[in-house]
Design brief:
heterodimer; A: 238 residues; alpha/beta; Rossmann fold; 6-stranded mixed sheet; 10 strands; 26% strand; B: 249 residues; mainly alpha; 0% strand
Amino acid sequence: MIINVENLVKRYDGHTALDGLNFTVEDSDIFGFLGPNGAGKTTTIRILTAIIKADSGNVLIDGHNVFKELMAVKKIINALPESNGYYEWMTAYEYLEFFSNLYEEKESRQEIYKLLDVVGLNGKEGHLIHSYSRGMKQRLGIARALINRPKLLFLDEPTNGLDPKGRRDIHDLLINLNREHGTTIFLSTHLLDDVERLCNRIAIINYGKIVRTGELDNMKGKGTIEDIFFLSTKEGTL
Amino acid sequence: MKTAYIMQKEIKESILTPKGFLWYILTSIILSVLSYLFLTNSELSLLDQGQMLYMIMNFITALGILIGLVFGADAFAGEIERGTLEALFLSPVNKTEIAMGKLGAALTNWGIIFAISLPYLFVVGKGGQNLLIGIAYLAILGTLLAIIFSAFSMGLSARIKSMKNSLIVSFFLFLLAGSPVFLSAALRRTWFGRILDLINPFADAINTFDSVVIDSQGFSYQIGRVAIICGYTFLSLWFLKRSVSRLEM
């Protein structure tokens, strides 16, 4: 098991964002984390990636306590946040090189080029990020999130705002990462076709609680993914 | 080492983007105009060399403070607003290393401003007394003031998380720092003026310049004011470290 979350609680100014969250993610899963807007998806990712602290509860990532072994966790995970910004004055190569330098095991020039190739940005490495389309930026963001060859990759709404081709490219990239490199992917989304195409296990969160979790194939026997989602969240909106 | 990479990135950002480059051009233009006026204006040129040097040193120090405040205000709030800080926080770098990298870049900016101002200082102060010692005091006290105001502004930026509000507070701080300039000579001699002069690090610096360049007084006369500036330096670094360690997205 690569993620083990127990009784996670987070409150903001009296509002309970996470209310005793419990779930696990297995190695090499593509784990779909679904929920309506405001359900607590981004808060969960931010706690799991050690960006914010929880009020109580416990999180183990590959056996390391997120709250106590911060640096050990950061070496084996990475993430693409929902509203990821870029240093637009840099070229794609400079951007990846900068983040690579922040790790003890830096990527060589060849490795950075290989990474750009993986995300389909080869030949564009010398262009300023400012000139990139949204889809290209998203692919660069994924390349940045792969710079430390993470065992576990968190993606928060990675296909939001992309055109169908851009979404398809990201889907193919994630499937390839999971199959070829065994990277566990934690995918937060409210786009159900992303889930159907990519995930083998899912958890549905609503009002800061997990309302359903399990193998996607087992759940599908009880209706479409859309039915499952609406039944689980009732008032949930997509 | 990670601090050095962050500092390098920040320095590149300030040189390659109009944000930083504009400051250097503005500094050159303003110093050129000031120096020209000092040397050619019929009334200003009557000032002795020490007086001219003192005035231009004050101006350079104020500019260094202003740039430190503006860069500091952008340091964390700007990155949060542009969505770039989260990626930095995801990498195995602690928040203090990030803050030190940013502070190092702010000090490099001050270093560039100081380097730009050197020829003007030599032209304006040439032939006068205490030129070299004045420049040495400007280098040391200017650097300490750059640390104080940049670190304080960065700390505020980490706490406020809004670029606009950080800038407003920073400009307010700048006015507060420059307040002795706005007080009349009579008011500065009252108990209120004296306390304000003493507790204001900018006032401490310009009074030290006055004492060194114009009155030719030695270091023993400056110890009190320099100690206060050093105290503010430690206080601002502590404030930055504390603010950044509490920073959450």
